[in-house]
Every structure is written in structure tokens, then in C-alpha cells.
Amino acid sequence: MLKKLKPDIYVDDIYAIDYEALKHEGITGIIFDIDNTLIPYEESMPNDKIQELFDKLKEMEFVISFISNGPKKRVDKFNTRLNFYTRHRACKPLSVNLRKFIEEVNLEKNQVAIIGDQIFTDVIAGKCAGIKTILVRPIKPRNSIIEKIKRRLESKLLQKFNEMEMKR
Description:
The chain is α/β, with parallel strands linked by helices. It has six helices and six strands, in the order E-H-E-H-E-H-E-H-E-H-E-H.
């Protein structure tokens, strides 16, 4: 069970990911979550640093998608300058929209990675879709009670994963 929750990679943020290594590994498609992975909830547009990263990823010929549980208006607004494949109200951790993206862009599962900030949505969806999962620290967690509970559980899971790695 824990295996379904453990991300393949865990890093501080999207800028700490070695995209060259992903490319070398055969990853050609990247699915990004938006909220708290790329921008905080209170922002709606990518900043210049994000724009630069996506320009670099385009140059590297990655096929990019934003698959978010957020509403269409928010996802479309974020994507205005970037113009990538999107899915809104994706119902993650269900993997149906990840699978649709993989099929529509004609990639194999082993060629795709998902990058997100939540174990219980992004990582589980990625694992269920059979793709590489990359977890980043949330940019700015919400202060809702549900969010606090989820983040506390995620913190305990990450601690457990660390302990398991150290025993190896």
C-alpha cells in the first residue's frame, strides 16, 4: 500500500528537477499540477521565471500538459501565455485524465511524468496511471482544516519513506 503513495522523486520545487536527466531517461511528456506546484492559490498567471522554465522545456521538446482539479476559468487563464494541453476539474486522484493525455499525444506510460505538490492527488493519480511521479513541496499551503490534516498525513508519510530509505 505504501508503494502507491511514495513518489519516485521528491524535491523542493519545480526548479530543482533535473529535466535533462528525465529526458535521458526517456521521459518526453510532463503533466504539471498548477495550484501550489507552479503558483500559489491566490495567483492566477505564470510569472516570468515559470515562463522561462516552460520556454526551456519546449526547447527540450517536452510535451507539456496542465491537469488540474481547479475550475476551467482558472486553468485557462493560467494557460493563456503558455498554450499547452489542459484538463480542468480532473478529479485527481482518479487517473482518467492523465490516461487521456497520454493517449491523445501518443506516448507510452514510461515516457510520461507527473509533477505535483500532493501525495493524495497527484502522486496517487500518477501511480494509478503507471507513470513517473515527482512530488514538490507546496508553495503556500491553504489554511483550511482539511488541508492541514492532509499535509500532516503527507508529512508523516514522507518521514516514513525517509526511514525506509535509510534502512536500505
